[in-house]
Amino acid sequence: MIDFDVIAAFVDGERVNARALADALGSAEGREYLIDVVALREVALVPAEPGSGAVARPRGPARIARWIGVAAALLVALAAGYQTGLSRSPARATAAAAPAVRTDAAPPAPTVVIKLEPGAAWRDVEKGGRP
What we know:
Number of helices: 5
Structural class: mainly alpha
Number of strands: 0
Order of helices and strands: HHHHH
Largest sheet: none
Oligomer: single chain
Strand content: under 5%
């Protein structure tokens, strides 16, 4: 029986038992499998042509650096949006445009005084009831 896993591990660059690899490649099926795996790997590693729709994804440190860059760009965008929101907030604009109010001045005299007296305009109603 042919050990195809040994051939696949050898193509992937992993350490394999030399005797097991020799046994696997000793048969025609094992050599055909090696040729197929190498050909498939070659097709997978060829850079994609522009417009083909295939996207090469970075691996290892390049992938980590890409995610760090994305996270940094997101943080910068959030901070800029927060600062923009602070500078354009209605409370800040209203406070800046409002005239100064004197707090030590006496209140103005009333122009109309409303007196509430029991009678026609005043009715006692029980809680939740209608008049």
